[in-house]
Structures are given as C-alpha cells and as structure tokens.
Amino acid sequence: MTDIKIRKAEGTWVVRAGGAVLAESKDALELSENGHPDVIYFPRGDIAMAFLDESDQRTTCPHKGEARYYSIVTKSQTLENAAWSYDAPKDDVARIKDHLAFYPSEKVAVERV
C-alpha cells in the first residue's frame, strides 16, 4: 500500500493561469504520496469553475480511484487536462472528494501567497 497522507495546507493557496486567478483558498488540502511531489487540492467552491471545461480524459489510480480531467480555458489558449478531481475517491483518501488539483507548469502557477 502506498503511504498517502492528507493534511490541511497551511496558509492561503492560489492557482493562476492566463493572467487570471482561477482559485484561492485557505481550506486547501496537501496530499503527500511516496515517490511523488506533494499536491495541493482546492475545494471546488474556491475555484472559478467557469474557466474549466471537463475533458474526456480519465485515469485510474489504484490508491485514489478514477480521476476526471479538466482543461483551463484562458483568453489566449486552452491548457488541456491541466486539472483533475476524484469524484468518488477511495475511503482512505475520502477527504479529497469535491476538490481539484492542478498541474503546475510554466503556464499554471500553484503557490502559497
């Protein structure tokens, strides 16, 4: 079994893309999984969902369940499959239900402010 830990992410976290703030939360969660960088999960209610379009992509994690992906639509471009969520996560990671995570990149900033 992979060792997964979920805890409240300290402070305020934001996601920025295309010059816009897509998410800002004091209630983000930090998920740590062996062999992977830590991931910040944002509550759906703290995300500007109008910037996100659900894509057809799905993946399955043996520890977390099935992930649905979202593309970020900005004024100038669409960032394909840049965010994901687990709508029905496995019991061990149930806290990430109704949260989304974003892939940090040169076009998507996920940072503590």
The helix content, as a percent range, equals: under 10%
Q: Which shape, going by the Cα principal axes?
A: globular
Structural class determined from secondary elements: mainly beta
Question: Which regions contain 5 or more consecutive residues with pLDDT less than 50?
Answer: none
Strand count = 10
CATH architecture: Beta Complex
> Superfamily at the CATH H level?
Domain of unknown function (DUF427)
SSE order, one letter for each helix or strand = EEEEEEEEEE
InterPro entries: DUF427 (IPR007361), DUF427_sf (IPR038694)
Pfam family, one: NTP_transf_9
Domain DUF427: 14-104
Overview of the molecule:
This protein is an all-beta fold. The chain has one domain (4-112): Metal Binding Protein, Guanine Nucleotide Exchange Factor, Chain A, CATH 2.170.150.40. It has no helices and 10 strands. The protein has strands at 4-8, 13-17, 20-25, 29-33, 39-43, 52-61, 65-73, 78-85, 99-102, 108-112. The strands form 2 sheets. A 7-stranded antiparallel β-sheet has the order 1-4-5-9-8-7-6, with no helix packed on it. The chain has a 3-stranded antiparallel β-sheet with strand order 3-2-10, with no helix packed on it. The radius of gyration is 13 Å and the shape is globular. The relative contact order is 0.27.
